[in-house]
Structure formats: C-alpha cells, structure tokens
Amino acid sequence: MAGRFAPRTARDTARAALPHQAAAPARRTAPAAPEGPPLTREWTPPGPLDLRLVLGPLRRGPADPTFRMVADGTFWRATRTPEGPGTLRLAARGERIEAAAWGPGADWLLAGVPALLGADDAPEAFVPRHRLLALTRHRRPGLRLLRTGLVMESLIPSVLEQKVTTDEAYRAWRHLVRRFGTPAPGPTAELGLHVMPDPRGWAMIPSWEWHRANVDAKRSSTILRAVRVARRLEEAATMDLPEALTRLQLIPGIGPWTSAETLQRSNGAPDAVTVGDLHLPGIVGHALADNRDADDEEMLALLTPYEGQRHRATRLILLSGRTPERRAPRMTPGNIVNL
Fold this sequence. Notes:
Keywords: DNA damage, DNA repair. InterPro entries: Alkylbase_DNA_Glycosylase/TA (IPR051912), DNA_glycosylase (IPR011257). By secondary structure, this protein is an alpha+beta fold. Among the domains are: about 150-255, Endonuclease III, domain 1 (Orthogonal Bundle); about 280-320, no CATH class. Helix content is about 40%, strand content about 10%. The strands form 2 sheets. A 5-stranded antiparallel beta sheet has the order 1-5-4-3-2. Strands 6-7 form a two-stranded antiparallel ribbon. Helix 6 (about 150-160) packs antiparallel against helix 13. The model is unreliable at about 1-30 (pLDDT under 50).
C-alpha cells in the first residue's frame, strides 16, 4: 500500500492544507514555550457563531482527553499539528473570538482559527425545502461547519467507532490517547488534556494494548495501515470531496462511513453525507417523511433537494430534536476477549 504514494513532508502538507495562513499571522506576545505564556490572536467572525455547535463534532465523548469545555465558556483543544503538539483555547467575547495557543504548533493553530470556526463555510448556500429545516436554521444561526485541515486526528477515532457502540469507541480513544499520547502543552494539567500519538507512536502500540482497549484486529489493522501513509492521507484535506473520499478509501478498512465522518471535520465538507450508519437513515426518514424505517437509499433520495449540502441538512435534522423514539434495546457492548 505504501508503495502507491510518493513521500511528502508534513510541513508541505500543512501549508497546502491551510493556504490562508500566510494572510493571518499570529500576534506573538511571548515565546511559544510549552509551559510559557501563550501566543494570542483575536478574530471577528463574518456572522453569528456558536462555539459549542461549531466545535461539538470534535468532541469524542464527555471525557475526551483532547477536548474540553469548561464552566467559564472556554473551549480547549489539544492536537498534533504538522509543526508539532499544540493546545488551543477559544472563547467568545461579544462579537470577537479570543484565541490563545501553546506549544510548537501554536502558530499553526492560531493561523487556522478562522477555518476551524467556519470562515470557509457558506451557510447561505443552504436553501431549506422543508419547514423543519427552515425553523431549525432560524433557531441555530450560529451553526457553521468547521474545518481542521487535519485528517488523521479525525480518521483514527472514526475507525475506532466502526461497528461498535459510541461508549466503547470513546473508551478506546481515551485509553489509547492517555496511554500513548503526550500531555498537552500549556496550563492543561488540571484539565487532563493529551495530544494523540504521532503516526510512529500509533504504529508502535503493542497488540495487547489494542486488546486492552477492546479494539479488535480489524480496526487496529486499519489504523496501522493508515498511519503508514499518514502524510499522503493528510493531503486529502486540500482535495475536492470526490477525490478526498477516493484517497481515504484506498486504505482497506476505510469505507464510505469512515471517510465521510473524517472529511466532515477535516475538510468542512457540506455534502459529506454519512451512509452506512445504524441510526441516521431512520432519523432522516422520520424527520422528512415520517418513515423511521428508511434505509440509506431512501435517505439519499430524501436528501436529493440538498445535493451539495447534505451533511448540513443532516446536522440541522439532528439539531431539530425530531428523532424517533428508540424501540429496540441498545446495542450490547462487545468484548474482544470473547470473540
């Protein structure tokens, strides 16, 4: 698999992924030492912005070691940038967004704040064809689709979520990041923030640790295949959606569900609709056609009027609260010891 790809540096990938960065330098208030004063910047969004709605898709469970929302309304994000580990703190102050960052990746993170918070998104392109979606959009004017410019940080937890309950996937993510990641730069000790491993770190995880995290061989093997060509997968962040989907799905074990879930976050792709999901077709069918038994084919048919904006349409449906009542028991968590 690795032989299909020519090598490319992580720095080159980052600069290609976020071409706007050169126009938005960070204001340096102090050296970006991991434990020293942060770099800071302010940014004014082009319209209403709800940080909780925008950043919510990055949170992998209530105890995600890479993401925190604290009581004072600030959001903390620890990630591995092409320049190294970094921690980003975001807070809304009236119409402005205040950002601070620590670590080797601080400049990269601050330069990417506008894209992260949906500056490249075009919510006005969405034309609601259903009253439910029109009302939800009106009630949620601060919804914008984020764009991280980072593929692997969304791809790996999406692989962990394949064919298991969300609780199982979240536990696996917590265990692996805390065990093999690194403490996040900056004043994050009380928050317990960690940065996920780099590709080599993922590749070095022993088989028994995947087992301890309750990750079966199929998912762990998919992750190991992906990290071997991580640099080329990161290039998908600059591609149009069809090409990006194709690039990710070159890896055995990465299909339409996983690639869509990844590109929704890394690329801010408004049309990356999730197919193959256990619940989403029934939710869309219930909301748009009062059919909770809809399958992927019917879901896509119902979303046809929103071609180009189907991911945004499903986000609005999920935010509307119009979801069918559960009528079957929850999926029973598995245990790979017994498989």
